[in-house]
Amino acid sequence: MLTRDRAAEIFARIRKYATADELECLFYGGRSALTRFANNTIHQNMAEENYGVSVRSAFGGRTARATTNKFDDESLQDVVSASESLARVQEADPDLLPMPSQEERASSNASSPGAATSDKLPSRHFEETANLTPAARADGVGQIVAIAQKRKLTAAGIFASSEAIEGVFNSRGLSAWHTQTSAEVSITMLAGDSSGWQKANSPDIARLSPAHLAQIAAEKAAKSAAPREIAPGKYTVILEPAAVLDAVGFAFYDFGGLAILDQRSFLNNRIGSQLFGQNISIWDDVSDPLQSGSPFDGEGMPRNRVQLVENGVVKRLVYSRGSAARMKKSEHADQVGPVETTGHGFPIPNEIGEAPMNVVFAPPKEPKTVEQMIASTERGILVTRLWYIREVDPYEKILTGMTRDGTFLIEDGKLVCGLRNFRFNQSLIEMLSQVEAMSTPVRTSGEESFDMVVPAMKIRDFNFTEVTKF
Amino acid sequence: MKELAAWALNIASQRGATYADVRVVADRSRALATKNGKIGNASDSRSQGFNIRVLMDGAWGFASSAEFDRTSVEATAGRAADIAKASARVKQSDVELAPERAVTAEWTTPHEIDPFSISIEQNLALLETIDRELRSVQGVTLAETNLNFRREEQWFFSSEGSDIHQTKYTTGAGYVAYSFAGNEIQKRSYPSSFGGQWQNKGYELLDELKLVENARRIGEEAVALHQAEQCPQGVYDIILESSQLGLQIHESVGHPIELDRVLGMEANFAGTSFLTLEKLRTLKYGSELVNVVADARQEHGPGLGTFAFDDEGVPAQCTPIISSGLFTGYLSSRETASLIGLERSGGTLRAESWNRLPIIRMTNISILPGETPLSMEQLISSTDHAILFQTNRSWSIDDKRYNFQFGTEIGWEIKNGKRVRMLKNPSYSGITTEFWNSMDAICSRDEWTLWGTPNCGKGQPQQVMGTGHGAAPARFRRVKVGSAYS
């Protein structure tokens, strides 16, 4: 693995070649492996190791970035030259801030009790995960396939593990470093005319049970066999956490200060109003024990714990340093709640600004299990996951997409049968205003959004507009 | 490079591999973007590395590294062998490859101007000019422009003796105008969405796109959409302009014909396909006018799916996919061709970079233009009542590729052969084969454009790949319109 000391040595060499006023280096990479299976067979199986350094040069309001995965002197000279060439010829941007110093980083920690630091963060590096072998992954897949074969099903999925580094050094003395591991299992069980799915990940392989996930996926495939077709329309739905995750994920890139300044956010003119139901409260919190990721942003600033939504009212946005400074000067400044750097910026330059990437839904006052939600439903639909979600309307936040891998009819408090999959066209704002019950939030992984801590939700009047053929 | 490959292939052979290949890749890309008059992105990226893919004990192993010294190369090859051995613990049968002749070849994307030879000042000046034009329109609240260049050099060596050196150039450019007013965010993109137009050619692409000339119109349309009528709901005849038809092909023809999906290999992520094997040469996919090919050859045009050899050394080919409406072909690799008894791979295996496994990807999946001369104006003038859809805004399709829904940035109502009014928030939906069977007109060659889709995601870990889609405007009868807002 690339160590912090080795990165510091590479940074020192890069500094020798630099002529810019300021210099920043982001280090990234790691070792990863992924065992992929389908038709009860491991059909793809890969490993990689790669590290890179991304060099940002700044000349008084002009900045650019160049990246290489080679650390020899010639490559480092080239990457500095490329970065400086791109920066030098630009028009100066008066809004571009000097790079943060170590003191600014430290004072952000001190002034914000919610700021994350490595020492406050639960360990996210586990040796057992880092050292997982191809044979161990194959054994895990073997357990999954055995369950599939026993139930006359076909299994497809992945078993992956990785060890990654992330670091920031700049010429004003700031440095930050993070290492973590990750393990992930995703399983689809296929039957003749139905399927079931489960996915989970964790920094700690010991917290994942491929066999347990396989049993649930297999059960879903079996129970949804011979799916019935019912007419599209508005139904009470119970979305399992993965379905909630993939839908709500489309909201959070709009919670950045720059999205408001750009007038591309559905929160423009809506901050402070009762946008969602009173039972919805959302935080961004990298320190949450169920979260993962580094405790600093693309400039090395500590990520603060931020309450985005309180009882259905959008209270705060997240900010990079630059967006916070611009917001304070803007016409929106008195309409968007507290404005301060929160440590959520992406590496500069970028077009998005910032976003909350460690979303945690607050637990409901009276959590209900999915089973309890089913039992309380006279007629409704249980959804395992959603698929191919896209934004239809950016301001009303209408999303379209499909159900997939386990959609069930509920009648009189019981699962009755599998259903053919639906297309939905549903406003996310309305969806989060119609939540009747929630489970305790859990760490959740899907395919359309980054991982979050979200609950299952029972939602009334969810808008299915079409049915497909399976 | 040859020496590096020899080290790796030798280790694979010593460990008992029955087949192995090595790809060494040097990738360079540049991205420039502006946003409301400021730099949105200015970045340059270089990545070099190699991989070895081995077939051992009837199963695959793959390992990659950025370190080119002999110790690293041999360790990486050994790792690939260890992985193959682990793969063999969970298999139902041995992998077999359709035969392929070994070749020695050299190929470079035909281009007039190396995009990296153009000064950064010139590039930024172009983007700034477009930006000014867009923002000169009152009501445009956000203007974004982009230029993207890529040079990908690859050396391929196989244990069967292939030695192929290819260099591909890609150029992309486009812009977007947003307008926020009241309770609406409207947008218009040019020449298309997803960053504009992308092709495998040099900087000369930019001269063909008329970027500056169209900027003001695009800004004006973004603002005018606020005053337009909402697209109605119901069943209508529709006309798709060529870039939207290109995406329609991508989603409802290109993906379902991928043989790895058909055979269940992508079931956990990208999904499967309704095009099960018995449908080959029996399914009436579309009307008689529907002729689709998968063509990776240079003579098809400078598409993002144009190359000389795929990433397992198979020459570029043209495969008929739909012939006069009949489903006639899949996208295949050496492994999947062998599984369904084809004599040879269709040559569609590609990887995003040196550290990713090659998988089946669309090449240029294009609908052939109509043989009878028909311009867009003639198509419109021959239409009694229809809705014209331009420039994709949203796209979604189920995991077997039956049910789709597309939204576009702008629509136009056509009545009695004329465009009569602008429509906002247009969408249409349907079932793949019903839709293609409803096509009753397609414009001829003069209206045909080879569009680039730079952002196709597939595989685990997910790989992003560029694909090409040639299309001309076409008309479809009795399509469901407007359900996105129902």
Class computed from helices, strands and strand pairing of chain A: alpha+beta
String of helices and strands of chain A: HEEEHHHHEEEHEHHEEEHEHEEEEHEEEE
**How many DSSP E strands of chain B?**
24
Helical stretch count of chain B?
10
Question: How much β-strand is present in the residues of chain A?
Answer: 35-45%
- Give the number of helices of chain A: 11
Please summarize the sheet with the most strands of chain B.
Answer: 8 strands, mixed
Strand order of the largest sheet of chain A: 3-2-1-4-5-6
Separation, N- and C-terminal Cα atoms of chain B? 58 Å
Q: Radius of gyration of chain A, rounded?
A: 24 Å
The major pleated sheet of chain A works out as: 6 strands, antiparallel
| Poorly predicted sequence stretches spanning 5 or more consecutive residues of chain B | none
- The chain-level mean pLDDT of chain B equals 98
Describe the global form of chain A. Answer: globular
Name the assembly state: heterodimer
Distance between the termini of chain A: 46 Å
Helicity of chain B, as a percent range = 10-25%
